[in-house]
Amino acid sequence: MHLDDTQLILLSRASQREDHGLEVGAANERHDRAIRTLLRRKLLQAVPKEGNLPFWRTGKDGAPESLIITAAGLKALEGGEEPARTPRAPKRPAKAGAKPGKSGSVAKAPPAGKTAKVVSLLKRTKGATVAEIMNSTGWQAHSVRAALTGLRKKGMTVERTDTGTYRVG
Predict the structure, then answer these.
(1) What is the mean pLDDT of residues 42-52?
(2) Exposure letters 103-115 (e unless 16+ CB within 10 A, then b)
(3) Domains in the chain, start-ordered, CATH in brackets?
């Protein structure tokens, strides 16, 4: 599945939040188009706004709505394929201050696709630079950095040396 830069940025933003909510920011046509596409592909889901989830829009019934990244969205961000079905949105967002890996967090799948390629590069003795990862995956630099952040969020220890080389420790 191909995701453009705007779609990757939006999914990456949502994946970095503990509640997986998307902060949309100021309205612009590029974001609106990307959000419509991500909703149609079921990589994002509109849910009733609860707790600290960011406001997206007012729904048809007048209730505030938020956007959250789905399991398919998380998988697509990793470079994997979209599953046939996506689970329902959580009934309530994770508690504020909850630690990653505790109940309410998304299950960690083993890296697949391009993410697995990134992990194998990082496991080399010399590690990998952003440029090497870009050449290997075809990603842009911001996508490489987002992938490194995603690996850290999954509990991997990604170290950066003084020379700008990244390694899994």
Answers:
(1) 92
(2) eeebeeeebeebb
(3) 1-78 (1.10.10.10), 109-169 (1.10.10.10)
